[in-house]
Amino acid sequence: MSEPFALPPCDPGGPDAAAIAASIEGWVTSPAMVDLVGHFGGEVPDGPMETVLERLAEFSKVWDFRAGVKERFDTERIDFGPELDPWVRERIRALGLGGRAHPRYDTYDHVVVLGGGIRVSLGRSDYTARLFAGGLSARTLAGLGSLRWRDDREHREGLRLGLGPIETEADMMAESLRRFFELTPEPVALRRGEDWWHRRWAGPGAAEVHVLAAASTRPPLRANTADTLIGWAEHIGAPAPTDRVLLVTNDPYVRHQHCDAVRLLGDRYGCGIETVGFDELAMQAWGRPLSTTELLQEVRSSLLSMRNLHDHFAVAR
User: Fold this and answer.
1) DSSP string over the chain
2) Residue 281, burial from CB neighbour count under 10 angstroms (0-12, 13-18, 19+)
3) Which residues, including other chains, have CB under 8 Å from residue 202's CB and lie 6 or more apart?
4) Which of 271, 264, 248, 275 is nearest to 313 (CA)?
5) Are 114 and 248 in contact (CB under 8 A)?
6) Region 2-15 average pLDDT
7) Which of 13, 84, 53 lies closest to 296 in space, CA to CA?
8) pLDDT tens-digit profile of 87-99?
């Protein structure tokens, strides 16, 4: 298979819509996508890219192993066997869901750590702290999360890992950043709304450290990545057109989270967006290896986010 596809660029001043459209078209019509879709009984159609993306988004329900609403850790796991499994995973790798592992620059205006479950929050916070220890600097560092109530599994895991009280996904992020950036137990400032809260610390390596529990736009469902990005801009501070924003996540979530950020932040505020993520091998230190169905689920997520990004610029034109 060919090398993984590069992510659509977004430098300060706003995204290049033509370059993004070309990148999306190359991705959805690539041999790896054609092979994957074909194996699962579909085809990548010809026609205008809007139509191609819509039809592929509909087809990708075959990869929805979360039944639309489940959390990622509840994704259905299917054994594809010793021959098919590596074939599928090779094509997923070629689609480049992981992106870059290291930032292009040493200095950013804002570093944003995307949230998730307890091990995801720990892994991403650990990775971010190692980037700062290696020379990365920023004016602000923010960890994002939701008010999703932690379940019993996460509660037990938090106790086992020696973490403090963790009631919500955002609390998991706060505890993770406190651990790896040696923050004080209590924040220096706290703001709270009806369905969100924002805590701020003075921290090493950045002028300010923030944690946001973002409001959901789809209650009773928890806030998703898009909600947390919008909440970050509204409650912590909108980025300027000259700003560089670095998002930190992990493979295989880089591509779809980057596309959401370009659409919601890069185009709206004109800021630069770069997204990095450590690979699956490194993540195994914080949890189990991802199954092939979990990776296919993220192919679907990437496809939906790229469709949204493409449609966003089509409407803007």
Assistant:
1) -PPPPPPPP--TT---HHHHHHHHHHHHTSHHHHHHHHHTT-----S-HHHHHHHHHHHGGGG-TTTTTS-GGG------HHHHHHHHHHHHHHTTSS-BSS-S-SEEEEEEE---SHHHHHHHHHHHHHHHHTT-EEEEEEEEEE-PBP-HHHHHHHHHTT-----BHHHHHHHHHHHHHT--SS-SEEEE-SS-EEEEEEETTEEEEEEEEEPPSSTTSPP-HHHHHHHIIIII-PPPTT-EEEEEEETTSHHHHHHHHIIIIIHHH--EEEEEEE-HHHHGGGSPPPPHHHHHHHHHHHHHHHHHHHHHHHHH-
2) exposed
3) 188, 208, 209
4) 264
5) yes
6) 79
7) 84
8) 999 999 999 998 8
pTM of the model: 0.93
Contact at 8 Å (CB) between 66 and 45? no
What percentage of the chain exceeds 90 in pLDDT?
Answer: 71
Q: How far is CA 265 from CA 73, 74, 206, in A?
A: 28, 30, 21
Q: Which tens digits make up the pLDDT trace of 144-174? A: 999 988 877 777 877 887 776 788 999 999 9
Q: Tens digits of per-residue pLDDT, 41-80?
A: 999 999 999 999 999 999 999 998 865 545 555 666 778 8
Domain boundaries, the chain: 1-6+16-98+289-317, 107-250
**Contacts from 229-234 at CB under 8 Å and sequence distance 24+?**
229/112, 229/144, 229/260, 229/261, 229/264, 229/265, 230/264, 231/144, 231/196, 232/112, 232/142, 232/144, 233/264, 233/265, 233/268, 233/269
The mean pLDDT of 188-211, rounded to a whole number, is 90
Measured on CA atoms in the order 130, 135, 136, 142, is the torsion positive or negative? positive
Place of tokens 């002028």: 207
Chain-centre distance for alpha carbon 47: 30
